[in-house]
Every structure is written in structure tokens, then in C-alpha cells.
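Running log. JK asked me to keep both predictions on one page so they can be read side by side. First protein, sequence followed by its C-alpha cells:
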Amino acid sequence: MLDGKPALNLGFTEWDERERVAANREKFMAAIDARKMPLAALRQFHSDVIHVAAAPCAEAPKADALITSTPGLLLGVQNADCVPILLADTRRRVVAAIHAGWRGTLARIAVKTLGRMTMEFGTRPRDVFAALGPAIGRCCYEVGPEVAQAFAAQFPRAADWFDGPFEQLAHGEEPLWLPWLTMMPPGHLLPPPRVQLDLRASNRWQLIDAGVPEKQISVSDLCTACRTDLLFSYRREGTKTGRLMAAIGIK
């Protein structure tokens, strides 16, 4: 619990005591009936790097997705706005945990993880179940023209995932920053327009496009920035917020 919030901080951060976070993780493992399962975690850095794990590493690997076919090993990813994605191939008995911010989403980390599962273990997308956990929603996730342009260049469906003047930002001219910085009141220009991005919708579409049946994808509607009474949000609360964890394993 942090400042009266019911969620436990599960991330090792500079401002929280390591012993307290370790105790929180023990409570979390007990709550999901995984007390005897070793936890494999990552040093996440908003990438499309994928690590295949057979056992926990002495030092957490630098990556943003984990895959295993080893029974008894728990995979965990942390988030405080980004999308946690869990994949389970129920036929080949392979699971994955993914951390997808806008950079990872743009780089198709969920689809690349699915492809790695296919390459390493013979996974077929039609056998995969996916769960997308609480993350910042399109209601709260404002991004600038560089993100709109990047998504427009990569995805034909990108406009469906944005609210606001997407076409203007994605395909129009860059905002003129210099006049806005130098003009004096009352002659200020309006701040440059921004759009709101739905990360979960983008990842959901990518999984469907890769062959995962739509009916086998579950998406949480909880927004981390709206529900800071319950969840952690880096965008809303700043650097001293906690970290959530999504975990998956094979019993």
C-alpha cells in the first residue's frame, strides 16, 4: 500500500525501500497462488527486445518481453501507464509477458513476441489467448505530432486509435514553434494541437491482424491515469509513483 492506495508498489525504485518492495512482491505472489514459483523479471527500456527464459537470471535481462515454456516459472512485467500484455499458447504450453509503451507498440513488440513464440516453440496464433491489463486510456494519453506521424507511417488503421486532429498532425505541416515562443501577450498563438492515443486498441488490432482470434483477447477498460485511487500512473503522479505488475506462468 502506498499513501492509502490499495495497490502494492511492486517496482524497485529509488524512493522506496527495497525490503518493502520485496515484501510486497511476496504478498502479490501469495495472492495469485504463485508463492513457490520463482519470478523472472526484466530491466524494461521501451524496446522491442524479447528474452526467452528457462529460469530466472541472476541479473534481470534488459528487454521488454519474456517468453517461457518452463513449468513453474513466473514471468512478470511492470507498468505505470504502459500496456501489460500476457499471451498463453494453450496447445504448446508457452506463455509470454510484454511491456508495451508507445515505442514498443510502434515497434510491434506484441506481434514480434508472438512470432518468436512461433519460431522457438511452434505456436500458432489461433491457439493463443491474450490479456491486456490496465493502462493509460485514450481519455488521458496526450501525445504530440511526432507520435501521430510515426503511427500514421506504420499502420493503415492508425486514425482509429486517436482522438483529436489526427489528420492535421499526422499529414499536415509541423507546428510553427518560434512565433509561439517569441510573441508577447495578447498576441500569443494557441499551443500546438495534440492528440490522444489508445495504446490498447493498437495492440489489440495488431494481435488480431497477426491471427489471434478476437474472441480470445481480453482488454481491461481501467485507465491508470483516471483511477489513481486504485492504480499507479507515471503520467498523472510523476516519478514517485509505484509500479504495477502483470504476471503469467505455467503450473
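And the second, directly underneath as requested:
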Amino acid sequence: MTDLLVVDDLHASVDGKGILKGINLTVSPGETHAIMGPNGSGKSTLANVLFGHPGYLVTSGTVRYKGEDITALTPEKRGQAGMFLGFQYPEEIPGVSVVNFLRTALSNRTGTDLTVLELRLKVMDALKDLEMDPAFADRYLNEGFSGGERKRNEILQMVVLQPDLAILDETDSGLDIDALKIVAEGIERLRDDERGIVLITHYQRMLDYLTPDVVHVMLDGQIVETGGPELADEIEDTGYERYRTGAAAS
């Protein structure tokens, strides 16, 4: 079986400053990976580089998706290929309703144009599952949304678009406990034997509701340790200090 995502010795910089310093990561179909690390460790940079953000320069290494080298591919092409990025800080798009945005995104993703009614029924089912007000579908994308609503909207997009690989950048950031549980349940519904999920987080609390298959610790632009779900519990107990100490010693 072909691995879904293979990142090989990836180095990347922004504004001339090296941020990623040799990332190696393999995600197989059906796997959920959690990438944890303190602020400034390069987690969000990794998410953006994986999705081809033009503001980040890959200086060496490769990103392969479904066996194909996509290192130079645009974000649009990556989305069409089945990749999805959930942003840490989703932006407002005034004048574009949630349902219209999803109709365009789904058309770009699959090449299929659903009727407005077909898509609305699909969105309403997803909103019900995520315990969101049906009126949400007609609001302008993220305009006036609370932090929790913006994050739920990211999960709504993922549920509707059904990506093969979802990269979620600190989806738990700014969520209260009730919203956190609902978002985690929404992600859990998408887990299956074919889809891969990369969950980037600063804290362990999301993992109380969503158990990953693999946990990675990221520090100073590198993955410094990989383990099972128990690694997240260890980080909750001891923090990242021992990784910083080890990096300083080396």
C-alpha cells in the first residue's frame, strides 16, 4: 500500500530565516498523527509548507503525496488532489456565504457541481452532526464568528469536502471544553482506513477526546521524538523541558 504522505529531509525558510531543519514524516492511510511542540517550534510552518503556502520557501527535501512529488505544486492543485488545511486563524471572506463557499470548494475538489438544494441538504446534515445552528450556512464566511465558530466551520468544511489527507493546525486553539468535544467528535467521524489526519497542537487536551496512532514532538524545526499516544500523556506531565535540555546538550 502506498503511503499517503512522505516528507523527506524537509528544510524550509521564511524571509530568509530557516525554520524547518530536516523534517521526516510518513503518514499511511488510516493513520492519525499528532505533532506537538512549544510555541515557535515550527509546527504551523510545517502545516503551511505541506499545503504549499507561497510565503514559505522549501530549500531542500521533498514532500510526496500518494507517491507523487508535490514539493512544487500550488495549494490549489494540492486541494484538488484531496489535501485539506485547517487554519490556525481562519480568515473572514465578507459577502461569501458558508454554503456558497462550500459549493465552489466542493466543485474544485471533485469536479462535480451539486445543485444548491443538494449541497444545502449535505451541509445541513453536517451542521446537525456538529451541533451548529442551521442559520450558520447563510452567514458570510467567518464574518463576526467567534473563535469557536471559526474552528467548527473548519471542521464543517472538512466533513463536506471529505479530503484524503487533512492537516489541522491547532484546531483546538481558543476552544472551550464543549466546543473542543464537538470539534474532536467531528474529526473522529472522518477517521477511516483510507484517510490520513495530521493534527498539530500545542496542548494535550484535544487528545483526551481524539486518540492518535502516532505522536511526534517537534522542537526548533525538527521532530525530536516519536511514539504512541502515551507520549502525549508524558508531555502533559513533564512538559517540553527535557527536549530543550537534550537539544542544548547536543
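Observation for JK regarding the second prediction: The first strand starts at residue 5 and ends at 14.
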